[in-house]
Amino acid sequence: MAGDGVMSSYWRGVRDGLPFLFVVGPFGMLFGVLATEAGLSVYETLAFSVVVIAGAAQFTALQLLTENAPTLVVIASALAVNMRMAMYSAAITPHLGPLPIWKRGIAAYFLVDQTYAASVLEFEKHPDQTPAQKFAFFLGVMTPICPPWYVVTLLGAMLGTSIPPDLGLDFALPIAFLAMIGPLLRTPAHRIAALVSVVLALSFAWVPYNLGLIIAGLGGMIAGAQAEQRLGITP
């Protein structure tokens, strides 16, 4: 019976992760195309996706590399974009923390925006699941997201400039984040943090090397934390 519960959790995760393919496909292909146009080889482009596996940070680093930004700025900006991963990890630890260390390592590697958003919503709706069932659901969500990310990145790198620039593949990034963030803005503190970060990101868009994103991220976190304290709200 326990095995049946794990398998049903896995397939439920696959079902919930499938819609993200419509975003992962064009987004990963666009990265592959732009990376090769920026001078990376097909192998380097694929390795970039496998090692980093963080689309927003990859695009940020790629843009800065094409602008010949200092290496430290490239690394700092990519890390700033990925600061949210630390918050994801803290939020999902109560659910997956009891797992063996090798399973936690797998979860840490595949903890991306989509797997986090879908998993947290599922765990909050069904808190009575065992850690094994939660891990199975997490792997199910990951299955149609992360392996295809590698494949479409490779495909984009191989196709390169043969893809027409007016195809409009860059629509995927904003749609992906809107779809993931929207259901998570459940409290006034969440909405205040999101609003402040958006305002700051637009206000400091002129700052070189995308450093305005660091300002926006820090400002949003501070605003959200202050809102929770003043309003007496727990996330």
From TrEMBL:
Keywords, alphabetical: Cell membrane, Membrane, Transmembrane, Transmembrane helix, Transport
Keyword Transport: yes
Intracellular or extracellular location(s): Cell membrane
Gene Ontology biological process terms in this record: L-valine transmembrane transport
Transmembrane region(s): 20-40, 135-161, 167-185, 192-209
Cited Pfam families: AzlC
Topology of this chain in the membrane: Multi-pass membrane protein
Major subcellular site: membrane
InterPro entries: Brnchd-chn_aa_trnsp_permease (IPR011606)
GO cellular component: plasma membrane
Family: Belongs to the AzlC family.
Designated name of the protein: 4-azaleucine resistance probable transporter AzlC
Annotated organism of origin: Marivita hallyeonensis
Organism ancestry: Bacteria, Pseudomonadati, Pseudomonadota, Alphaproteobacteria, Rhodobacterales
